[in-house]
Amino acid sequence: MTRSIALFGTGLIGGSFALALRRRHPDLHVVGRDRDLEAARRALELGFIDTIAGSVADAVRDADLAFLAVPVAQMPGLFAEIAATPVPADLVITDAGSTKGDVVDAARGALGTGVARFVPGHPIAGREVHGPDAALASLYEGRDVILTPLVENPPAVVARVHAAWTACGARVTRMPVEQHDRVLAAVSHLPHMLSYALVAQIVDSADAALKLGLAGAGFRDFTRIAASSPEMWRDIALANRTALLAELDDYIGLVHGLRGAIDAGDGGALEALFDKASRTRQAWKRGEMP
Amino acid sequence: MTRSIALFGTGLIGGSFALALRRRHPDLHVVGRDRDLEAARRALELGFIDTIAGSVADAVRDADLAFLAVPVAQMPGLFAEIAATPVPADLVITDAGSTKGDVVDAARGALGTGVARFVPGHPIAGREVHGPDAALASLYEGRDVILTPLVENPPAVVARVHAAWTACGARVTRMPVEQHDRVLAAVSHLPHMLSYALVAQIVDSADAALKLGLAGAGFRDFTRIAASSPEMWRDIALANRTALLAELDDYIGLVHGLRGAIDAGDGGALEALFDKASRTRQAWKRGEMP
User: Fold this and answer.
1) Can you tell me the distance from the alpha carbon of A265 to that of B71, in angstroms, rounded to the nearest whole number?
2) Do B214 and A124 lie within an 8 Å CB cutoff?
3) A52 has which bridge partners?
């Protein structure tokens, strides 16, 4: 059981993790650290951390679990700091990064054989608001968390991370790192790229103001994710480059085919594609799998 | 003022038009006609039509406004039937088709000089449910309606259609046919194609069930419109072929560029594109124009 956490990143993701675990384990001790000192102070005021760590060494000294909830681009630096610090023998480390291949590479590079204590993770949960005040004890309830255990991880180490997420109310799925990155590229990273691209196309075109003035509910939903953080999505696109490029290539090919069917007036091909998509989307909404 | 309407198509769009006008003009007489006799009977039960017309001639005999709310693919046949029928001298015709170039071509072809009485229109409003029971008197309140008047239309004819939509509570915008089709291709037709394509790509890929099982809120919103009617969108894609192909070509070019930036690790180019889209989408949500 987790008794003491080193929380790196005291915003929405880290804060919600601490709040959720504390609900189950009221005696849990949480030491927080954030590059943004204001965020750490606010986390202390809100009570989901007990102290602010002055250094990485202070944060992990008495921890049995370190939770890395920092932007993916900050992970390599954080792993390097942890590698340079004495840590408790039973310390387990996990993270909440949206991509896993690059985080695992950074962890292996910095920790060496110590990567055995690092279990990569990714909670599929979020909110449109961020920071300590956005943290919710219920954020992970009924949500999926993907763990991508490494060959170096002893089963007991994976089990501890798994149990922490279960205690948060999450549904844990395990898969290889590469599969995680391909799955997320398809259902999350690719749609973000496509949504950004549509808005960019419209704003740079003739009649942009007229178009935006007449855009309705379809545009609204399709482009909601185009309001997301440019920095975060730049980092994700680069971090998951290989899988995302494969998805983009498939997509460009598919849209080329769709273009050809429209050009050729091939109503049958269009209807078949739309019908397959429509039936799939309707089944998905009902909670059915293909 | 409109006193008597010939309503072709007694579903969501036509029914809502009749209900909205009747609220302002309680003495309005509505004659309904629908290829689906059950839909016409239900409209009669719901009271938004007063009689069911046995023929096109019966429908228009005493009408001063004919409202064509049938699928775009049925417009040519309906115009041909109207052309073959004696109509009142002051009859004005308008429609609610999602595309305008093809509808205008059909109207010109069938009506000849009689096209002067036809004012093309497109209400930017809808619901996810269809048919007579989905009709709402409030459907068009505060919504945009685009009219694309023809050079043949006398101003008084356009004014009558304009006034009918204003009486429904709509905000009327006028523009040329070609501009309407380009604007709608960009903000509506293109996103529908792209949303269908993403769902089709996922369902035909490896790990489809796993991907759909882990798809979150971003996927949900991006693909909501992929649940739309395959037949209707096949017809729209073909009807607005020219404008849609131009938008698709621009989009494929933009996504190619995005792909290149990811492949080259060009974070600056990615962030610039995402940032432009993100600021535009956020301003749009606040009701600001670029």
Assistant:
1) 18
2) yes
3) A32
B207 and B171 co-located in one domain: no
User: pTM for the whole thing?
Assistant: 0.90
Compute how many other C-beta atoms are within 10 angstroms of the C-beta atom of residue A30. Answer: 26
Q: What is the dihedral of CA A97, A99, A100, A103, to 10 degrees?
A: -60
Comparing CB atoms, the residue among A173, A205, A259 nearest residue B186 is A205
What is the CATH number for A56? 3.40.50.720
Chain-chain contact of A196 with B252 (C-beta, under 8 angstroms): no
When CB atoms are compared, the residue of B224, B248, B282 closest to A227 is B282
A197 and A145, same structural domain? no
Of A135, A151, A175, the residue that ends a domain is A175
Share of chain A above pLDDT 70, in %: 99
Is the residue at B290 inside a domain? no
Same domain as A121, residue A80: yes
**Distance between CA B97 and CA A239 in Å, rounded?**
45
Q: Give just the sign of the alpha carbon dihedral B72, B76, B82, B33.
A: negative
Range of the domain at A202: 179-285
Interchain CB distance below 8 Å, A259 and B248:
yes
Is the pLDDT reported for residue A289 higher than 90? Answer: no
Same domain, B143 and B33: yes
Within 8 A of A146 by CB-CB distance, chain B residues are 214
Which of A129, A192, A198 should be substituted to probe chain B, the one whose Cβ sees the most B Cβ atoms within 10 Å? Answer: A198
pLDDT at B290: 61
A157 and A134 in a common domain: yes
Check whether residue B194 and residue B68 sit in a common domain: no
Question: CA-to-CA distance for B17 and B167, rounded, in angstroms?
Answer: 10
Closest by Cβ to B222, choosing from A203, A225, A231: A225
Average pLDDT over every residue of B53-80: 96
Prediction ipTM score: 0.91
Q: Tally the domains of chain A.
A: 2
List of residues 6+ apart from B112 with CB closer than 8 A = B83
The CATH number covering residue B212 comes to: 1.10.3660.10
Both tokens of residue B202?
Answer: 């996922």
| Same domain (yes/no): A198, A169 | no
Query: From the list A182, A201, A278, which residue is nearest B254 (CB)?
Result: A201
Q: How many angstroms separate the CA of residue A144 from the nearest CA in chain B?
A: 7
Q: Are residues A113 and A207 in the same domain?
A: no
**Rounded to a whole number, what is the distance in Å from the CA of B86 to chain A's nearest CA?**
35
Question: Residue holding tokens 């792209």?
Answer: B194
Task: Tell me whether residues B277 and A183 touch, CB distance under 8 A.
Answer: no
Q: Distance from B38 to chain A by nearest Cα, in Å?
A: 25
